[in-house]
Write a structure and sequence with these properties.
alpha/beta, 2 domains, Nucleotidyltransferase, domain 5
Length: 286
Amino acid sequence: MGTYLHRDKFNQLLYNSYVFDLEYIGTSTQLETCFIWDLCCEHLPSGRIFQITIRPDIHPLPPPFGADFIQVTESILQQRNAVPFAQAWNSLQVFIRATTGYPTAPVIFIAHNAFKADKLMLEIDCKRHRIKIPYRWYFFDSLLFCRKQIIKHSSYALNDLHRHLFHADIAQQHFAVSDTVALRNILVSIGLNKLEGPVYPAHCTALQAVKWLGSSSERILFSHGIRSLEDLVQKVVVAYCDSQFLSATVHLQPFIRNYLMSNYAIKQGNAASIADSLAQKWIPGV
């Protein structure tokens, strides 16, 4: 389940920390329809890099998502010695075992927008191939971290942060190696000793995936033992269903708002916004 890593704990795990990036293609921007084709992972303290090209399980190869992305072709896959996903996964595991500083400690994987993109995409492709991600592998979203360290910037997209800090665009953006190295440089520039924030294992949805649920509300929920979005949804649904037997039917949104306020002391404005988001997207019943 999710937990908050303070700076001292993050520093202890630095030798087990990696920066990574995935590039994927698909017929739409819905991640369930997408397939990873490029993966890079860099061991943060040593700088050792693992990169591999994956032959995506989609035919024909679709056009790029936009002008900033390349057209992945059969020729490119052959030139880069693309391998099946399962083979790439095995090679990644060999790299992690060879570079991890503390073999029995948790491993931290850092990606930009991890909780809404890279972590989810890795879970989707692993599920397709019946591969289990180890529960000692935790994921950290550098986008959330950068928002707290670089205040009121106009954009927190990876290239915009790179331009802000280094006055240059990322060379060959949207290739996994380029974006991985760029993110490593951004984190080093901000200060690795400042790294802290929430981490989640695979198949646990980050609480901040809920629109309007920010870091302060997440910390409050953590302190009450709510360690993932699945945890929160289950508790809300159980409480809501139980309430139907005790009183007249209450609409879902106001119930969630009052539930968050009374049980977790989340402020009324935040609770109302979070309740709307939960009811509209994350709770399937009515």
